[in-house]
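This section describes the prediction task in plain terms. A model, or a person checking by hand, is given the sequence of a single protein chain and must write out its three-dimensional structure as a string of tokens. No templates, partner chains or ligands are provided. The sample shown here is typical of the held-out split.
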Amino acid sequence: MGPLSGKRVLDLTRVLAGPWATQMLGDLGADVIKIERPGTGDDARHYGPAWLSDDAGKPTPDSSFYISANRNKRSLTVDLQSADGQEIIRRLAACSDILKENFLPGAMARIGLDHDSLRAINPRLIYCSLTGYGQSGPYSARPGYDAVFQAQSGLMSVTGLPDDAPGGGPVRIGPSLVDVATGANAAIAMIAALYHRDLQSGEGQHIDVAMLDTALAMQSTAIQGFLTGGIIPERLGTAGNGGHPSRLFHCHDGDIFLSAGNSAQYKALCQILGLPELATDPRFATAALRFKNRQMWDEIAEPVVHRRDRNELQERLIEAKIPCSVINRYDDVFADEHVKQRGLQIEMPHPAAAGATVSMVANPIRLSGSPVEYQRHPPMLGEHSEEILRDLCGFDDEEIALLRGQRVI
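The expected answer:
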């Protein structure tokens, strides 16, 4: 029984940020009902790069993108543009604790499913809106995806190599981290609103979470330098923003990242590299000088590191308590013993998957008294429609058949 057991979440979101937030609540025990378009479902079902395969090796309709953010949910297909579909949502909102949506501002009001309309039905309902730019401001009507907010928030401007370096220029962070961070912020906000309702006010409230807001908050340590001193950070590639050496180095058989962040680690690194003279060189006597003169240091150290074996160097660095790691691919990551022992890859039953199981990344939250549980596979489209309509909305078999015949569900 998770900490949110007994709470019901009506999830009208699609793609990534919204579904990620509701998956977090589902992992913590909430009953999450995922509302999808009849026939096509969540857009994420159609995104790659891979699709779940069945026992015959044929791709199923569900993509890896969709699977990543939709476990511990039930799927109900509803045509939100139809009057009967809107009535289904109202019935579900009446018996739900949270409604989560990520449509553009004003879209839900046009179909009578906005916060004010549903609050009249259920004053305890917590209504969470997740959008690109928020519910207010001149950009609120604009759509957007993760990389747009990396660009607009300045995140892309500080990511990548300097302009004068080969391959220099702004770079998009690979995974959609703004989406995931926005989803995490939405999950925190919904749990906080539950706490406020249940222990203080007795009423729900409207939550406004925006991807641009989150993209700025993610960079607060870098942005604070600008807000405090007007400093525009430069792109440093893999180098750190303060101490040095803290960057990726090329060994003869692969790459390694190391970060000698204090003087003790720096002196130990010089010994390991066979460059003890650098430990006492006045050009590198302090952290500030090492950062200022980092190109000089690199010109001396890079050829030495390049002759080393990366695994042997990593062992020596770890022994000296210098933070470091070889650069892993995903196959390296999930073959790692630490990752295995931490259980960061989970297996869930799935009726359509080869071997009737699907692998997923574990929830990162560890609770000793109410641990995360993996009860439901990412649902197939409309998999739970009939049970939800019957058990929660009060429809009988004849009414359900009529709704299906009219393509409301």
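For orientation: The mean pLDDT is 96.
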